[in-house]
Design brief:
alpha+beta, Enolase-like, domain 1, four-stranded antiparallel beta sheet, three-stranded antiparallel beta sheet, 7 strands, about 25% strand
Length: about 200
């Protein structure tokens, strides 16, 4: 039972880890009255969610099933380690890719029920950033800088050292005292051999 809890804790910690900022994209939400700024809404492509699931529980460690709900909505059932979470995704009316849009939105929402990508909605600050019209919609002018600012304001350190320390911190939080003592002994033994 302790091993199973350890693995669930470790999996949850790995799923909750922030995505690298270079895979975070922004879309404009509300547009300011002066029509020069937009509310930046962060999101990550579903393929990155799938890659994280593959890396954390393995390609065969998770499964997904969809069922329609109404005209433009889909329910996604995501299962891993014997636990299933569901959520709904809905496509906008007139979207030429309604089924795909609804399925991917439902998938990402089901992932957030496991902690994956949840920080995008709960931890990142809402920023008004420069935006410009592009066709019938709007585009964020400097998405990379805005994502970096969001991460900085949220206290997410993803420098190489910060990423390494964050992973160690997450991993160590999931260890029991006995496991930490055993790990310490292994590190000491390895250091002696290397010396």
């Amino acid at each position: 039972m302790a091993d199973q809890q350890f693995s669930h804790d470790a999996v949850f910690a790995a799923l909750c880890a922030p995505f690298p900022p270079e895979v975070v994209e922004l879309k404009p939400g509300a547009i300011s009255e002066e029509k020069k700024r937009a509310l930046a809404l962060a999101y990550v492509d579903a393929r990155h969610y799938q890659a994280r699931l593959d890396a954390v529980v393995g390609p065969d460690g998770w499964q997904v099933a969809y069922r329609p709900w109404g005209e433009r909505a889909v329910i996604c059932c995501l299962s891993m380690l014997g636990v299933t979470r569901e959520d709904v995704g809905e496509a906008e009316k007139g979207d030429p890719n309604q089924a795909t849009s609804a399925a991917m939105q439902a998938f990402k929402r089901a992932c957030t029920a496991f902690g994956l990508g949840r920080y995008l909605y709960t931890d990142l600050p809402q920023l008004w950033v420069e935006a410009a019209p592009r066709g019938r919609s709007w585009a964020i002018s400097n998405s990379a800088a805005a994502v970096q600012q969001m991460y900085a304001e949220a206290g997410i350190d993803l420098t190489r050292r910060g990423t390494y320390l964050q992973r160690i911190h997450i991993l160590l939080q999931s260890f029991s005292e006995a496991e930490l003592l055993m790990l310490g002994k292994q590190i000491a033994a390895t250091a002696k051999k290397a010396a």
